[in-house]
Amino acid sequence: MQSLTTLNHLLTEFYDKFSSWELSVVKESAYSLAQVHTIEVLGNHGAMRMKELAEKLAITTGTLTVQVDKLVTAGLIERRAQQDDRRAIVVALSEQGLQVHQYHNQRHLELVTDLTRHIDAPQLEALIDSMQKMNREF
What is the pTM of this model? Predict the structure, then answer.
């Protein structure tokens, strides 16, 4: 039980530090944290229907519609007809949105590189394996 308590504290501390770091990175841009998260999901997963995107972001489709409208106006997202069902609309990153995603993703990679510089290869593989297992539980 002590190990789980320690892990709980470590995960909470990591989340708090990561959230602060994320906010500082987003403040450098002209976009809100919610907008950057929307760009991040589309950049990582590709074009998708609004309902699917809302589920990945854990927000309502109404809240997402407001976000997407702002991102379309900013030229970062495009609405498109779905290939196999022209009545369905999907959202995807525009070229400018892709550039924002690539920049933000590069910042994440720099942070991960810094955070793991003292972790050897077997420990890194164990960490990756553990994180994958934990992510599957969500």
Answer: 0.85
Residues in the chain: 138
Kindly report the CATH number assigned to the domain that includes residue 129. Answer: 1.10.10.10
Measured over the CA atoms of residue 53, residue 55, residue 56 and residue 61, the dihedral's sign is: positive
pLDDT in tens, 12-59: 999 999 999 999 999 888 899 999 999 999 999 999 999 999 999 999
| Direct distance between the N- and C-terminal alpha carbons of the chain, in angstroms, rounded to an integer | 21
Residue-wise pLDDT for 81-93, tens only, equals: 887 877 788 999 9
Is the CB of residue 57 less than 8 Å from the CB of residue 41?
yes
Dihedral pair phi/psi, residue 31, rounded to 5°: -120, 160
- Residue 89, domain extent: 31-136
